[in-house]
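Late entry, written up from scratch paper. The run itself happened at the end of the previous shift, but nothing got recorded in the book at the time, so transcribing now.
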Amino acid sequence: MNPASGEALPQMNSPAATTVQAIPLAQLAFTFVPVALVIYTVFRWTGDARGTLVAFARMLVQLLAVGYLLAFVFALEHALPVIAVLAIMLCVASTIVLRPLRDKNTRIYLHVLASLLIGGCTILPLVTIAVLRVEPWYLPRVTIPLAGMIFANAMTTVTLCAERFEAERSGGLAYEAARRIAFRAALIPLTNALLAVGVVSLPGMMTGQILSGVSPLVAARYQIMVMCMTFSAGGIAAAAYLAFARARAASSDNGGERGGQRRGRRAG
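Output as recorded:
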């Protein structure tokens, strides 16, 4: 029941949400035809398509593996496996954030992990408990997919934020100026998504529900929830990362000043 309007909203495991037919493998294979064309173009123009091939191989293995894993977790319907899956998602996402950074160390990894944890664990309980009123609160088929959307968007936002902050600091900007530029840049994809949704794109949640027979008006409510939670989680995670970065910036600045003083004394 929707507490705002009193209307019944479809449950995630209702018949209306389970009418999508499985795609036969022979038909699914057609989607790989344009993929092969793009990979061939990559090879002809760059001479090396290994990265793209590895990415697609990983995609296939990861999706098949997670399909079996989630089927197992969904059948258990217990809190501990759900918490374990969420923890793995957070740790892997934190590792991915570090990939474009030149400075990779345990301290930054922990800051990234804490930022994603703050952003994700602020928004996920709000959505599952206050908005959807999920019972039990850890219901795997609801909590895990929503957590995936939240963590993935927060991961991308923090990646953009961290990379831009590092670049601006390397260019000599002070912490406040680098923070302002990094935070603004990190929010560009999220803001663009808000501007485009419903006009340029119908995102995954809304498209999936419409394909499964849910009313577009009901699907729109769920998509509004998704847009709010991804924007908020990404913004909170990026702000948390930049707050953690203040201490690193201060120690770096102090170290530079001390080094300059030592060089000045030696020159004197």
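Residues 120 and 263 are 45 Å apart (CA to CA).
(Scratch paper discarded after transcription.)
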